[in-house]
Design goal:
The protein is mostly beta strands. It contains no helices and eight strands. It has a single domain (8-89), classed as Jelly Rolls.
Length: 90
């Protein structure tokens, strides 16, 4: 997946996840590491919004390295008070 060193491009913390939210991708980003705290989240990248029951689950404490088209990623919380931290790399 990741080849060679990566360059940090930015950080985002999303705390308002009651509805599906797109990532705010910094210019030049090719990868993202997503990690949630407090509550699980669901993610989709196929052009359809995730719901609290449908989408790939990221459990609290898990991390996901995403290397697809970052602009298509949308995330939603599975329960109130989820927080998603995202590190972007180029």
């Amino acid at each position: 997946m990741r080849e060679g060193p990566v360059q940090p491009k930015g950080y985002q913390q999303i705390t308002s996840l009651a509805a599906a939210v797109a990532l705010t991708v910094p210019t030049g980003s090719r990868y993202a590491m997503l990690k949630c705290t407090a509550q699980s989240v669901r993610i989709r990248d196929d052009g359809t919004d995730p719901t609290t029951a449908i989408g790939m689950l990221i459990d609290v404490g898990d991390e996901l390295w995403y290397t697809g088209k970052l602009s298509r990623v949308k995330v939603i919380q599975t329960a109130v008070s989820a927080t998603l931290d995202v590190l972007y790399y180029g």
